[in-house]
């Protein structure tokens, strides 16, 4: 798909300096720009590249004035970075604007769906599934019985949504994610073996939730595992049964949250964090990468370490961790001197 400089300027409410009819069909970094590509200049450190870039069009701030000859056509805007981000969003919407139902795919006779949906080849929609307007279900996705999916939701290729789960408006579920698999519930019997505890609940994703590739969210034993509005989960995260995550919380990759833990609103949780079950984490909490959380956390705490300490306490303690061999050596030398004086 090609766009002219004038078309892009119209989208961004910018001004063209150069050839308004020049076309682009790709995006590139300014230092890697080539003919037919669109790029942008926002960071002054990259200014030198605008004089050598081969990109056909470059988005720049209105304050930019070239000091040397340039070949690229300019589109001048108030904020080049924000404008380029806006263009990326627009480009993504155009690229993903698929509609229709591809064959072969399976849609139950009892399923219902809104206008302008897309169902890719080999997708499966079970009994009593309900899908909203403009939703996109990509190839090889599985949508189990009684699942409800809201407007403008996107389920990418190979994602699985088990029965009875509820997906809100504008949610994105990336490839390989599994929503609603059984929680890890087993009870030992008198023979020392483990019997499975039926997991009869579901998963609820509220509006504007993003789920990364390979992330798993288990259904509740009873009730619901709930991911509140605006939550963003990275790739390869494990959310156990009956967990609740508050709105606008973000969690980085490879974090695991054990069952029945409640995480507050607006939290920021780094990668590879481990959180035990049946605890409560407050609002606005920040947890550094690779921390281990084994207790309730109050609002606004900042934590690091395993087991996690207050961030300031951890940094003070780390000074001693690094110097521990020297400290032990000094203590041994003092003990020898004391023993020699006795």
Automatic annotation (TrEMBL):
Keywords (A to Z) from UniProt: Acyltransferase, Lipid A biosynthesis, Lipid biosynthesis, Lipid metabolism, Repeat, Transferase
Catalytic reaction equation(s): a UDP-3-O-[(3R)-3-hydroxyacyl]-alpha-D-glucosamine + a (3R)-hydroxyacyl-[ACP] = a UDP-2-N,3-O-bis[(3R)-3-hydroxyacyl]-alpha-D-glucosamine + holo-[ACP] + H(+)
Annotated transmembrane regions: none
EC class: transferase
EC numbers, comma separated: 2.3.1.191
Positions of the UDP-3-O-[3-hydroxymyristoyl] glucosamine N-acyltransferase non-repeat region domain: 21-89
Pathway(s) where this gene product acts: Bacterial outer membrane biogenesis; LPS lipid A biosynthesis
One Gene Ontology molecular-function label: N-acyltransferase activity
InterPro entries, per the entry: Hexapep (IPR001451), LpxD (IPR007691), Trimer_LpxA-like_sf (IPR011004), UDP_GlcNAc_AcTrfase_non-rep (IPR020573)
GO cellular component, as recorded: membrane
GO biological process: lipid A biosynthetic process
Catalytic site: 241 (proton acceptor)
Subunit-structure text: Homotrimer.
Similarity comment text for this entry: Belongs to the transferase hexapeptide repeat family. LpxD subfamily.
Function of the protein: Catalyzes the N-acylation of UDP-3-O-acylglucosamine using 3-hydroxyacyl-ACP as the acyl donor. Is involved in the biosynthesis of lipid A, a phosphorylated glycolipid that anchors the lipopolysaccharide to the outer membrane of the cell.
Name used for this protein in its record: UDP-3-O-acylglucosamine N-acyltransferase
